[in-house]
């Protein structure tokens, strides 16, 4: 698999199970790019939704993508602490166009005190019916949710104290 070069600026694209484009983040600066993980940073970037709406992110963020895990993590740096938004979806792929993954609706929001909330279970059930998710997707998502919750509890990976701050300092060198 190709992977982006450190310092390059890439687009991130999420798709739905049926192949339709779901959301596009215009600019993410690559801070680490290997075949196993990609770490990027962005700040107040333009995001395009599939329904034609666009909006800007509100704060600096460090994005963690894995080739081995069915989730990605966005660490958002806010005045009142570190928040994390975790998307449940396929491991990433990367081509010259963009970093890509399939979003499977479920999300976990993690608060500065490391409490969390599972979001969009209704959306997952609805899309499961509408897009005919195969039975193994539900099994994989359950396992991914459990793994992600375990990472939060263990403060592992992007939840490790200092992880987001370290990569944010690197991000500032490219701005």
UniProtKB/TrEMBL annotation:
Any one Gene Ontology molecular-function term assigned to this protein's record: nucleoside diphosphate phosphatase activity
Q: Which InterPro entries would you find in this protein's record?
A: DUF402, FomD-like_sf, Ntdp-like, SA1684
Q: Which Gene3D superfamilies match?
A: FomD-like
Query: Would I find NADP among this entry's keywords?
Result: no
SUPFAM superfamilies listed in its UniProt record: FomD-like
Residue positions of the active site = 23 (proton donor)
Q: EC number(s) for this protein?
A: 3.6.1.15, 3.6.1.6
Q: Where is the DUF402 domain?
A: 18-156
Q: Which cofactors are reported in the record for this sequence?
A: Mg(2+)
Q: Name one Pfam family in it.
A: DUF402
Assigned keywords, A-Z: Hydrolase, Magnesium, Metal-binding
Q: Which amino acids does the record list as binding Mg(2+) 2?
A: 105, 107, 120, 123
Q: What class of enzyme is it?
A: hydrolase
Residue positions annotated to bind Mg(2+) 1 are 87, 103, 107
Judging by the UniProt lineage, the source's domain of life is: Bacteria
Catalytic activity, reaction form: a ribonucleoside 5'-diphosphate + H2O = a ribonucleoside 5'-phosphate + phosphate + H(+); a ribonucleoside 5'-triphosphate + H2O = a ribonucleoside 5'-diphosphate + phosphate + H(+)
Its job: Has nucleoside phosphatase activity towards nucleoside triphosphates and nucleoside diphosphates.
Q: Which family does it belong to?
A: Belongs to the Ntdp family.
What is the name of the protein in this document? Nucleoside triphosphate/diphosphate phosphatase
């Amino acid at each position: 698999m190709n992977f982006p070069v450190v310092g390059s600026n890439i687009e991130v694209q999420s798709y739905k199970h049926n192949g339709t484009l779901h959301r596009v983040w215009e600019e993410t600066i690559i801070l680490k790019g290997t075949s196993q993980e990609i770490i990027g940073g962005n700040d107040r970037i333009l995001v395009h939704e599939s329904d034609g709406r666009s909006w800007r992110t509100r704060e600096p963020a460090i994005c963690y993508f894995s080739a081995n895990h069915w989730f990605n993590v966005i660490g958002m740096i806010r005045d009142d602490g570190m928040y994390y938004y975790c998307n449940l979806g396929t491991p990433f792929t990367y081509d010259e166009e963009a970093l890509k993954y399939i979003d499977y609706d479920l999300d976990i929001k993690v608060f500065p005190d490391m409490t969390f909330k599972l979001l969009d279970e209704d959306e997952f059930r609805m899309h499961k019916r509408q897009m005919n998710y195969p039975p193994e997707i539900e099994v994989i998502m359950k396992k991914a949710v459990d793994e992600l919750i375990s990472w939060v509890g263990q403060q592992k990976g992007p939840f490790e104290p200092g992880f987001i701050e370290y990569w944010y300092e690197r991000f500032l060198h490219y701005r």
